[in-house]
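Q: For a teaching handout, I want to show students what a protein-ligand complex looks like in token form. Below are the inputs, and the small molecule is iron/sulfur cluster. Please produce the holo structure.
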Amino acid sequence: MSDNTLAYTPAVKAATGPIYERVKDLIPEVEWAVYAPLIHAINELKRERKAYILAHNYQTPEIYHGIADYTGDSLGLAQQGAKTDADVIVMCGVRFMAETAKILAPQKKVLMPDMSAGCSLAASITAEDVRELKRKYPGVPVVAYVNTYADVRAEVDICCTSGNAVEIVESLGADKVIFLPDGYLGRYVATQTDVEIILWEGACEVHEKFTPDDIRVFRADHPGLEVIAHPECPPEVLAEADFVGSTAGMIKYVADNRPAKVAMITECSMSDNVSVNFPDVEFIRPCNFCPHMRKITLAKVLKCLQDMGPEIHVDPAVAEKARLSTERMLTAGKRHSRED
Ligand code: 13P
Ligand code: SF4
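A: Here is the structure, written as tokens, with iron/sulfur cluster included.
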């Protein structure tokens, strides 16, 4: 596509005007002049290609509000990816999310705007590590957070997300489970259930940075503040929070409770994205950002729709096994979901 077609023309301005109206408090007009032509081109091309864009809650506002057909947490993206009848999915998120979409819908083309968008949790464990755990604890069921790659999920009994981890652990009916790879999420689950949890010490590089002092300072500076935190945070941080939940759980908390002031202790794009829908709520914005999520940009999304690549491939034998543990989660989640 030539630079000409990416100009901020009056036609592009008019076509993207309703989107800008929503995000104008977040994105200055000079920046919008750069984003709008890309947004317009992506939205045209995605219709032509019959592609469906999934975006995680941590994507930047111009992606989240500008081009996504569906936005949500990891569980929502997995469910929606499996449900859409589009033949092409573009994952605005990280690679394990694109693998989930491919595992659940192997007949679809799943495009990933930047293949190098990883995750410190997914990188913390290998399939061989899981086999070693199973040798060490024979007969103990293994639950994997979906923030893992397909070869790891192929070795486990069932997957979970932060939105359903407690329900999934309890759905197994076991006294003891191996929970991997997030040590903090595992510890949080252990506080919510009588099931004994054997931990793996992976961590999210974004959430592990928060400290209880951060929260105390926010509360001192903003009297009446409600603090809601993601369970990937350390236990001392969760102990300071009023509510703990997945990214979708946090949005639901704000929608249901309409706090006057709220701090979302999670990746910083979340507050920007959610604030658009709740103008009556004041968001106190901590800013730890995920470098992997930030690898996805409008320019890369456009290029990937033009090239119809890069495409996610999962070895069919691995995908077949990973599908079992991922689908078990969706079935158990239907029975046990608390956040719908
Ligand atoms: P959820 O959106 O499922 O809560 O996950 C958070 C996260 O860190 C995803 O990378
Ligand atoms: Fe992984 Fe944390 Fe980034 Fe989510 S926020 S993709 S868990 S590193």
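A: Two things your students might notice: The first strand starts at residue 51 and ends at 56. The CA atoms of residues 67 and 335 lie 32 Å apart.
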